[in-house]
Structure formats: structure tokens, C-alpha cells
């Protein structure tokens, strides 16, 4: 392969390709033209409208008459001129930043509304905008449209440098000069074909690309075929024009075979088609953006090609799998993969050729080594000797990780196999397997050997092995698990400047045979002091130090004796794609370094200057709140004083960045000044919402970090959330006045209240006096009632006592009457006939006197009457409660109520004591009293 540097274009590998399908950009299949505005947004003339892409979001804009757009061109002011079917005009942002369409074609007076047809090309020429259809040229100048007609139809038109050319189907190529078309001599030969592209060439010559006749040079009015490699491609693949890159290269589109990128000598540098990455072989348009990357408008889809990159790739289309090692040996590039060993001629063009598989190597291949000018592959199949692109011998059929010569012993080579280590020997007939190294049972791909020891790292242990003089047996094995007390582990083992270094925590140690311990080398440690924590270091053939950290890669590029330049940006895109624990880095020279990937091989040229390491640009694409949206991504807006009513205090921001390389690794960080205390963590999200913002002044700040880890400057937008009407300054003035009025009112009310309180106090005193007086009266009344009650009780007691006395007296009278009746009865038994008259008269008088005393005694009736009057209420209640009670039972009840004894009741009722008990029993039954209830207590309760 030639080591000539093609400026920014790499001839080795394929740039990173990103395809956008129809369902992603939500448009039609065909994309006829591409342009870019000052904000970095890319626009595509699509059959379904104008597509806009800002790196995050696709937006489609349509024309009122037809959706089909065939041309787009953006002027320095930001107007986006478009040409469609029967219409052409421009989009520009309105006061809110939203793109609005303004038709220019509607001002043209035409006999037939369909006479414009498709507008295929738009050019800025001096102070004119030229719209070209197949039939007519329309010149837009100072808001007026003029028509330039010719007798014959046009094909296409092209602007080269500051000159504008049209292809007339009958008159050949014509140059537009001062409003007129001037024919170019010698170009009528192209009338029977279609010209799809014109490019500048050295010495003011023109390169003309036709659809089916190939490429022609136009020099001094002469047209000649451009007999080059690029011309052969154009003729075979049907060229559809293309685009220039920095006046040094030309991209040629085709119908049948994708695109090629060639220099201006016609040498093809890159050939990219469907086979190696793009989604469609028919390329309708191509465009170089502001970062010198290539966009392709396809017949079905859109493709981005990262031409301006440090890295190119050999991926699945080159028949490579996971790459574990690579090396250049005798004009061939050899690659060890999980499938075996592949090779490709080093000096041949890498454009489209696949790598060739080397028969006999089909297995896991771990490493490739050039030892004693022989190429050996350490693989699962054995130690394979490869020569002239063929596997010629298997030195040992054990599986090997790696082989390396013993220092100062060019005759012997040590190989790490799956079970230990073997010894190989160089003989007159070539390299041969000699023997197993006895005494070593540990196996690892990580080992180094110096003049004294074989050092093997396995897991967390480091083995120091001393070999015998024949190198076929281990004399001693010592195991280490740490390098020092400060670094209690062992990270990696590597050779730097032909010395073995042991690393932990980015500190590098040598082993001192005299002190028998590890001693830090501060010179090497200082190189890695400020770097991320590394896993291992690899030194390449020109002294560069490559370090692996996490799943990423960095480098200290050697610039002189002990001088290095730290480089990390170009390799950030390799993060996650390197082969874990088997990172392969092969440097051929400063222009060619290869990295093994999980899916292919990457190529790096350290001499290329790249714009990718420049700061990306962050944009706040839109700023929306309920009822309105401000589009900031379409260009400057006249009104940047954003005021939001409190009712709309929910805001939403969308972000974008015209960084189209590795869009999935693009990250944003933001901070709403006045709300957020700190910047947010980096995130792929390009949307942020805030709700319930308080009234205040705010500033939304955003920055972006691209796939190389480079941060942009911050972009900001300021806005203010106004308070609700009840927290407005006028409202607060009103509140102040209301407060003053309220205070005045309160003071007035207090004065009135004081007066009222005095009045109420007098009334209260009077009320208390009256209450006290009423209380005294009430107490007096209650006292009188109590006295009356006591008197009544006393009277009642007295009455009862009198009743008792009356009863007793009545009983005594009854006894007396009984005695008298007895006397009367006895007097009846006396025969008075024997008495003399005087005695007889006295006897009769005595008998009459006694009878009169008995008959005239009404004490019983008086007593009964008295008792009924005294106990009238009791008897009434008893009768009401027990209607069936008899008079005699009522009398008994009265006697019982008077607490008369059984004997007294018997005498009073003139019955026996047993009769009283029987009467009591009947009365209890009549009153429905159980045995436990007291009869006298019950009667007392009725009273």
C-alpha cells in the first residue's frame, strides 16, 4: 500500500457510515439535493417535502401546491430556496422562528398554470437567484422575477467556481453571462447524452460527468475523454454527477454501483457501495458539510459518511470477525481472528477487495509474531508457520496464546500454551518444537521474559520463574500478590524501552535483583499520573505507549527522547468495540496503526489533522410553553425578550447539535439558572421540561459533548415568568392601600368597640346585679320551699303521730266497748225479776246507760273517715295503679302504710293475726309483688 497521505481522505478502510431509512426521516424515498445552513442543520430536497435534520430530530416542511421538491439552496441570510413541481420560492423563519413558505412562482404570469414543471436546480449568481427547469430559466432579483427562454429545452445546470453553465439539448453547453447565454465551443458532442456534473480542474479546465458516456475534460474549447480509473467507473456505473472536496477530490455518484472518491488525477481512493455499507447503490445527490463529512441522497434513503475522521474500518463486508492480532509481513497485512488468519496485499488498493482466508488456519487465532524473519500464528490449532499467504507447517498441535524470543538467546523461543509453557528452537531447517518446560503448571497469555526471570501474570498473582540453563525446566517459582504496601495488588505486566514494568494504580515498578523487591520508576509513573486508571500498557514499534482503561483506549505518542504527546480524542469512538482482555494494537508507521475490534479492524493515521477535535456547537432548538412555541434552531429571531404569564409556567426545551458523527454518543448537560443549583449529569436526552416555575428571571443554559468527549461552549436563553395577577406589583400596591384602609377601619372599630364595651360593661354590671338579686330571690324562694317542705314533713309526721294516737284511742275505745258489751251480755244473764223495784230500776238504768255508751260511740266511723281524708291521694294512686283492689284491701294498705303492727291491724280490722297475714299475702298477690319485694316499701313508693 502506498504511504502517500491523501490530505484528509484516507485510502485505507472505510469511514464510519450511518444510514437513515425512510421510516426514520418520515419522508419519501428519493433525495435529490442537499444543503446546510449556518446553524449546521442539513436540508434534503425529498419527493415528500423539504427534510430538515439537526442531529437529533427530523422535520418535514411541504409546499402548498406539491410535496415533491427537487432542489434546495440556502443563502447567507438564512433563506432556504426550494424548487418543486410547478412552484419555487423560499422558507424563512417567522417571528416565532417557525419556517414559513413564500412562493416566488405565484408572481409569474403564465398562460398555463402547469408550464413551470419541475425546478431542478437553484444557483446563487452574483446578486441573482436562478431557478432552472427543463423548459425555462427564472431569474429572481430584487423581489422581481424575469424569464430567460431559449428555443430548445435545458437538461441541467452547474455552477463551477463563479461561473454558471447550462446544458441545452440542441446548442450544447452554455455559460450564463450578464443575463445572456453564450455557447461553449466544442460541446455539441454531448448533446446526445445527459450531463449530470461539472467540476473545476487545474489550469481552469472543466471536468464534465455524463450519465452514460463517462468523464470528459474541457480544455481550450476542446472536449477529450478523461481516460482514468474514475472514468471507467463512470462509464460502467452510469454517473449521476457528484461534488468536490476542498478542490482536491471529487465524489462521483452513480446509478449502479454507489460512489467513488477520486483525486484530480482520476485515481480512485475510496469506493463505497451497498456491499460495504450504504443502503442503496443509486446515489442521486452528494454534499460536503461544514465539517468536511459527506452526505449522500439516495434513491431510497440518506447516508452520512464520516470522511473527516481519524479512523476508518474494515468491518463485516471484508469477511473479518473478531480481530485479536494483526501484523504486516513481507508486503501482506495478516489478521488473526476468531475464524482463523486472513491476509490482504499491503501495497494493493483496499477499496473493495476482501481479505483472503489462509487455508489450514480455521480456528481461534490469538497472536501473530515475526520471529527470526518467520511468521508464526499462535492459535487454538497450534503454532502455525505461515509463508507467502499459506500455512506451511504446524510446529506443535497444542493450543498457544503467544510466543516470544528469549532475550540474548536468538536460538530459543518460549510459547505459552493452554497448560503451561513450551520451548521452541531455531534450526538450519527452520523453527521447531523442542520440549515442554517442566515444572510450570500455570498458563496465561500475559507474560514477559528478561535475562533473569520468566514473569507470568495469572488472575491476581504474579509468578517469578527461574529457568535452568537449558530453559527446559523451572528451577524456582515465587508468587507475588502485591507490588508494595501502598499498591497491594498487581495490575499489569508490560515491556517499555526493553524493560519489564509492573503496574498498579498507574504506578510503574521494576524488580531489583539486588534488593529483591519491586522499586517504583517515578519517570514512567509520572507519564501516567494524571491519566485514568489503566488496565495495561502496550509499546509499539516506534515507541508510542498505548494504554487501556475501562473499555477505551488512549496513547502517549512519542515526539522525542522521553517526550510524549497525550492523545485520547481520536479513540473515543472505539469505546466498547475493543476486544476485552485481548486488545490488539499494531503500528506499522506513524500513518498506519491497526486496532482489533469485536467486529473487524480499525485503522488510524496519527498525521491527519482533523476538525473533529474542535468544539461542537450546542443549540436550544425550541422553547415552548402552553399556548406558544419559539423555534430557535432555524436562525436568529428578532424578539428575544421572552415573557411568560404565570398561567403558562410550564416550559419545555429541546436541544440539538450539528455533530453528526456517532449521534448515539452525543450527550447534553443543562442548567436552568434560577432553579437548578448544578448542571445536570450528561445524558442522551435532548428534551427537558420544567413545571410550576415561580415568578422570576431565568436563564436556560445547555452544552453538548460529542463522541470524542469534547465539550461545547454553553448556549443560553433568558426568559421571565411573570407573577399571577394577585402577586403583581400593582396588586401589592392595591394590597398596601387595602391594608392601610383596613388599619384605619380597625382603629375606628376599636374606638367604637371601646365605647360599646363601656356601655356593655354598665349593662353587664346591671345584669350581674339583677342576676345576683334573682339568685338571692331564688335562694329565698328555695329556702321558703324548704321550710314549707320541712313544715309539711313535720306536719305529716305530726299527722301520722296523731293518726297513730287516734288509732290507739280508737282501739282503746273498741276494747272498752268490748268490755261493755261483755258486761251487757252478763247483765242479760241476771234475772232482774228478783230485784226490787228500786234495784230493778237502777239495774235497768245501768243497762241502758251501758248500751247507750256502746251505741253512741262513733269513733270507728270517724277514724275511717279521718284515714280516708288523710290518705286520699295515696288511695287514689293505688286504685289507679291497681283497679281490681277491694276497699278492705285498700284499708289494709292504709294500715300498713301507717306502719301498724299485725296485732294492731287484727284488732282494728276485728280479725285474727293469721287473718292479717292471709290478707297481706292476698294483697301482695293482687299487687303482683315477688317474694323479694317489700310490701310496705312498695306502698311507700306509691305515696
Structural class: alpha+beta
Task: Please count the beta strands (DSSP E, at least 2 residues each).
Answer: 64
Record the strand order, biggest sheet: 1-28-27-26
Mean pLDDT: 88
Largest sheet: 4 strands, antiparallel
Question: Which term fits the overall shape?
Answer: elongated
Strand content: 35-45%
Distance between the first and last residues' Cα: 138 Å
Low-confidence stretches: 1-7
Which percent bin holds the helix content? 10-25%
Radius of gyration: 61 Å
Question: What oligomeric state is this?
Answer: single chain
Count of helical regions:
11
Properties at a glance:
943 residues; alpha+beta; 11 helices; 64 strands; 39% strand
In short:
The chain is an alpha+beta fold.
3D architecture notes:
This protein is of the alpha+beta class and 943 residues long. Helices cover 21% and strands 39% of the residues. It contains eleven helices and 64 strands. Strand 22 and strand 23 form a beta hairpin. Helix 4 packs antiparallel against helix 6 and helix 9 packs across helix 10 (913-926). Residues 1-7 have low confidence and may be disordered.
